[in-house]
Amino acid sequence: MTELAFARIMDKYLHLDLYPDALAALATMKDLKLAILSNGSPDMLNALVQQQRPRPRARGNHQHRFQKIFKPSPDAYTLIESTLHIPPHEVLFISSNPWDACGAKAFGLNVAWIERVSPEAMALACVESDLVAAAHDVQGDPHPDG
Questions:
Q1: pLDDT digits 0-9 by tens, 17-34
Q2: How far apart are CA 89 and CA 110, in angstroms?
């Protein structure tokens, strides 16, 4: 991947639109303590939150700290309890990433997985994209359907 292609992909992460149902869902959770646990950088996350109108509101004082711990490592999910002081069994972890939902569930969090994209649609998008190599290209599989 070229440096320009990588820059374009990263720029898209700074200008994501919320799904239409996201603000309504956040409104129903307005009295709960909300937080973002992301592998993204604080600058990226701040840009995303700032561009939303109306802006989702976080309750309480939260400090942004960038840890070099990445999900689905169990160490990433420990940040929830150490930062928010909420035990895992009292957390509802919401994600549209299946690997993230599985990591959170394995850690002991209550999980809601929002299936935004079916596995078939994700595979098709990867096959049709010039940004992601097909698995047989990466692994050298001589069978294109393998």
A1: 778 888 888 888 888 888
A2: 6
Strand partners, 75: none
Q: Of 24, 31, 96, nearest to 58 (Cα)?
A: 31
CA atoms within 13 A on the CB side of 144: 1
Domain boundaries, the chain: 3-115, 117-146
3-115 in CATH: which number? Answer: 3.40.50.1000
47-67: per-residue pLDDT in tens? 877 876 655 555 443 444 556
pTM of the shown model: 0.68
Residue type, 77: Y
Sequence-separated (6 or more) residues with CB below 8 Å from residue 33: 59, 60, 84, 86
Rg (C-alpha) for the chain, rounded Å, is: 18
Which is it for the CA torsion 95, 90, 75, 106, positive or negative? negative
